[in-house]
Amino acid sequence: MIELAESKYSFLLDSFKKLQNINVQKKKSGIHDYSLMNALLKKTDEVNLHSNFIYSMINPNSSHYYGNKFLKLFLESINEDDFIDIENAKVYKEKGKIDLLVEDGNHVLIIENKLRAVDQEYQISRYIQYVIENYLDNDKENLEAKIHIVYLSEYKATPSDKSQSIIGFKLIGNKLEWKNIPVNINVTRKGKFIEKLDLDLPDDTCIKFNRVKHSKELSKWVVESKDYLVNKPNSQSLIYAFDEYKLILDRLKDNKWRNIMKLDEFTLNIEDEKEQEKMYDFMIEAKKLSDEYSGKKLYRAISNKIKEKEIKIELYDSKKDFSEENCIKWFKEKGEKKSWRDIGFFFTYSDTKYIFLLGVKNIYFGVYDASTKGINKDNRYNKESIFEVIKEFKEITANIK
Question: What's the whole-model pTM score?
Answer without folding.
Answer: 0.63
